[in-house]
Amino acid sequence: MTTNTAIRTTTDAGLLRTLWLASPALPVGGFSYSEGLEAAIDAGLANDEAGVGTWLIDQLHLGQARSDLAVMAEAISAWRAHDLDRVRALNQWVLTTRETSELRLQSEQMGKSLLAWAQALGEHGAAVHAALRDAALSPPTWPVAAACAAAKGEATVREAVIGLAFGWAENMVQAAIKAVPLGQGTGQRLLARLVVEIPAAVDEAIARGSDEQRQAFTPMLAILSARHETQYSRLFRS
């Protein structure tokens, strides 16, 4: 009975931490970014349910799976192995591959906010805060900082990355609801489509286990993100 209880508690702890990191309530500012979606809406490329769905699914597979999710998967393993050289290299890769100033500022701001979150948690965030501090990242980026928080939990790499991918999807759907605008029912249908796509995207991200296999090349997203910097009317910071 004792053994079974211990196994259940460990599983619960891993699940709960994954849900915590995926939550829109995590105070890292993800809700204030649309990652180019607002500019795509302004350009008429994603101004209804079908267009937004296509845009976000493409962004998941062509952008997130090949870049940020792949970094997260590698970084979780690096944090758990205490391989700070690898952590720093991954962080630098993120900094140097952001295609616009908005996207870089987003990654930096969210990374710094996660560091502040860990510090504010006191003893509950001490391990994450100490790891990020000892790594001396200048500054910590969101994919690497989020991986650090995930690495301190008990979820597998795949489970943790699925959770982080869902957090991204939920933020993007909420951005679409506000910016198009769309109804809540439409938003739930969009989220359902992304939920179906996330496992395959995460598997692809994990398979990109070397620097040569990762990439950050999304030309249309980069163009729209650059346009967003001077967009006349906007709700989001990217």
UniProtKB/TrEMBL annotation:
The keyword Zinc-finger does not apply. Its main location: cytoplasm. GO terms for cellular component: cytoplasm. One of its GO terms (molecular function) is nickel cation binding. Keywords: Chaperone, Cytoplasm, Nickel insertion. It is found in: Cytoplasm. The keyword Cytoplasm applies. InterPro entries: UreF (IPR002639), UreF_sf (IPR038277). It holds the Pfam family UreF. Belongs to the UreF family. Required for maturation of urease via the functional incorporation of the urease nickel metallocenter. PANTHER family: UREASE ACCESSORY PROTEIN F. UreD, UreF and UreG form a complex that acts as a GTP-hydrolysis-dependent molecular chaperone, activating the urease apoprotein by helping to assemble the nickel containing metallocenter of UreC. The UreE protein probably delivers the nickel. HAMAP family: UreF. This is Urease accessory protein UreF.
